[in-house]
């Protein structure tokens, strides 16, 4: 079988390449070749993607020792995504207390205050405002500062460094590694400070775990902080901006949310399902440890699979009329945050941040609209506007 070149081609904004739909219907196990690495199988159906996310017959750890399908010459992994249980379970358990529903709800008041202050600044400055720099980026940045214990005044510095974590082709491998090294050094310095003076933050909690014995090494500590800061911060900022853009595209849905704010939690799930935020599906290739039967055929032991979660979220077998955006839909079960042992540990925090951000901006600016053309960034693992001018 001849492998298709992947990714398929450029897309505009938040559109999905129609090839995903054709493959989902006719070739749910499609052979693909990325610019670097070996060939792999692209999964596009909901049931197949969900199984591969959670079934122990598929391994993330194997990717660390294989010539994985990838966009750049070097493979860029991360600590939690390069491990299978039980090592993954050990590290995840150390973080779990920071991301419980109760802990996240305790942070909601802080998020509401910060969102209000950012919107105050936007309103005082007057329209037009650039939504990314004025709101979508600083809100999750301030929240992750609060959670981890990163000084607010350093956020512009670590924002530039954290972007390297999400780069696919936007930076050269050399520039990416240089920035990640600088970010690791910055976070290691904060950890050293917490060894002298502990505070009520996640860095302090992880330092305690490190010092209690063999639960967490110094290297693991820094790698976990890089992952949390790099991935969680950028992905939430991207989704806030993408969600505002989507609601402006469908003003009837935005109007419904203003009239019935109790719909917001379900609307955020629908936004997570509908928005194809992941730029391409090569972020976390998994390797079959044995032959596995999927709807499109057999994946043999030792073969990698790439998971098109955004295509699975538009599978009509799971979500009727899937291309319709509907804030009243029950979108629970979407795969945006993954499924199984590697389900995004920061999902509850991200949900809360987006709920607060959308509720605040829709309530403050009933006449919110685009003020100019939106430009979209490229070469990053998450789609998002590069600039999004708005007025009200």
Structure description:
By secondary structure, the protein is α+β, with helices and mostly antiparallel strands. It has a single domain, classed as Cytochrome P450 (Cytochrome p450, Orthogonal Bundle). Helices cover 48% and strands 10% of the residues. It contains 14 helices and 13 strands. Strands 1-2-3-9-6-4 form a 6-stranded mixed β-sheet, covered by helices on one side. A 3-stranded antiparallel β-sheet has the order 5-13-10. Strands 7-8 form a two-stranded antiparallel ribbon. A hairpin with a 6-residue loop joins β2 and β3. α4 runs antiparallel to α6, α4 packs parallel to α14 and α7 packs across α8. The longest helix is centred in the middle third of the chain and has 32 residues. The protein is globular, with a radius of gyration of 21 Å. The relative contact order is 0.19. Keywords: Heme, Iron, Metal-binding, Monooxygenase, Oxidoreductase. InterPro entries: Cyt_P450 (IPR001128), Cyt_P450_B (IPR002397), Cyt_P450_CS (IPR017972), Cyt_P450_sf (IPR036396). It holds the Pfam family p450. This is Cytochrome P450. Belongs to the cytochrome P450 family.
Helix-strand makeup class: alpha+beta
Q: Helix tally?
A: 14
What Rg do the Cα atoms give? 21 Å
Mean pLDDT: 88
Number of strands: 13
Globally, the shape reads globular
Strand order of the largest sheet: 1-2-3-9-6-4
CATH superfamily caption: Cytochrome P450
The percentage helix is 40-55%
Order of helices and strands: EHEEHEHHEHHHHHHHHEEEEHHEEEE
Family: Belongs to the cytochrome P450 family.
Keywords: Heme, Iron, Metal-binding, Monooxygenase, Oxidoreductase
Organism: Lentzea indica
Pfam families: p450
């Amino acid at each position: 079988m001849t492998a298709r070149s992947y990714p398929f081609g450029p897309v505009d904004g938040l559109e999905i390449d129609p090839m995903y739909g054709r493959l989902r219907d006719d070739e749910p196990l499609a052979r693909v070749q990325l610019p670097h690495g070996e060939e792999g199988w692209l999964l596009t159906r909901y049931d197949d993607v969900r199984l591969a996310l959670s079934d122990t017959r598929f391994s993330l750890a194997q990717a660390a020792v294989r010539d994985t399908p990838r966009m750049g010459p070097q493979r860029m992994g991360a600590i939690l995504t390069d491990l299978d249980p039980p090592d993954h379970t050990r590290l995840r358990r150390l973080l779990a207390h920071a991301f419980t529903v109760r802990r996240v709800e305790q942070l909601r008041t802080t998020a509401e205050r910060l969102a209000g202050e950012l919107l105050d600044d936007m309103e005082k400055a007057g329209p037009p405002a650039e939504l990314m720099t004025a709101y979508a980026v600083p809100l999750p940045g301030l929240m992750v500062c609060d959670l981890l214990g990163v000084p607010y005044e350093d956020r512009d510095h670590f924002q530039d460094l954290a972007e390297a974590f999400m780069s696919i082709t936007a930076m050269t491998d050399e520039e990416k590694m240089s920035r990640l090294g600088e970010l690791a050094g910055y976070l290691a310095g904060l950890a050293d400070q917490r060894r002298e003076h502990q505070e009520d933050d996640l860095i302090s909690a992880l330092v305690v775990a490190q010092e209690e014995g063999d639960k967490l090494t110094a290297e693991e500590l820094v790698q976990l902080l890089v992952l949390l800061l790099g991935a969680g911060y950028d992905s939430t900022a991207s989704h806030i901006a993408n969600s505002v853009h989507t609601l402006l595209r469908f003003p009837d849905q935005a109007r419904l949310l203003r009239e019935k704010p109790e719909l917001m939690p379900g609307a955020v799930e629908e936004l997570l399902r509908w928005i194809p935020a992941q730029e391409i599906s090569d972020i976390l290739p998994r390797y079959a440890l044995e032959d596995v039967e999927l709807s499109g055929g057999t994946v043999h032991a030792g073969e990698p699979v790439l998971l098109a979660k955004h295509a699975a979220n538009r599978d009509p077998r799971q979500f009727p009329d899937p291309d319709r955006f509907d804030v009243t839909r029950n979108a629970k079960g979407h795969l945006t945050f993954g499924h199984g042992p590697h389900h995004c540990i920061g999902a509850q925090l991200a949900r809360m941040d987006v709920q607060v951000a959308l509720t605040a901006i829709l309530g403050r600016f009933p006449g919110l609209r685009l003020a100019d053309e939106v430009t979209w960034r490229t070469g990053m693992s998450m789609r998002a506007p590069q600039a999004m001018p708005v007025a009200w």
